[in-house]
Amino acid sequence: MPQANPRVADHPIDSQFLSRWSPRAFTGADISEETVLTFLEAARWAPSSYNSQPWRFVYARRGTPQWEGLLGLLNDFNRSWAENASVLFIVLSKTTFTPPGAAAPVPAVSHSFDTGSAWAYLALQASLSGWHAHAMVGFDKDRARTQLGVPADFSVEAAVAIGKLGDKSILPEGLQSREVPSPREPVSKFAFEGKFQG
Length: 198
Ligand SMILES: Cc1cc2nc3c(=O)[nH]c(=O)nc-3n(C[C@H](O)[C@H](O)[C@H](O)COP(=O)(O)O)c2cc1C
Hints:
198 residues, alpha+beta, 7 helices, 29% helix
């Protein structure tokens, strides 16, 4: 049964922003390399400071030899539902860059901000293509660094599971009630004209 989407925008926006959400009930469908590349293609076009494109994605599709390795990085809770995803990503960002005309790399102050844009593009493309993406901080970043051979000048940012939406009845009871697109604070809570308002 598809989950009803209770989200309503207060101001007119494209429906894709309300349709994207992060379920945990996935069907365990296989996914083609070509489909994964369409998600990554969307991430490719994200904006970044100096167009430095600091994002990196290490991924594994279910059924491939790399799958268990990435799944094993997740904490127990996230592994319990993400094991039914179709592809897992570890998202990394480069913490230094060489500005135009400079001879040596300098710290990239916006590497996480830029990479957040890339993840959002990836998630929106997945949603537009009939898949669902779910980001995670619940995984072992240190082990990810070692296991995936991530160099010191890269930050391990997040993990992402993408899959086909399954029936929530496959989840433990406590998670079934949370398996619905969540609400948001109104714009007035986070945007202020002219001066910060706490
Ligand atoms: C960076 C990031 C880390 C997250 N970590 C987890 C996680 O470890 N486990 C989990 O179940 N959900 C995780 N989430 C999902 C959020 O709880 C979810 O995005 C949020 O509640 C908003 O819901 P929506 O994505 O359905 O709109 C994470 C989301 C983001 C963006």
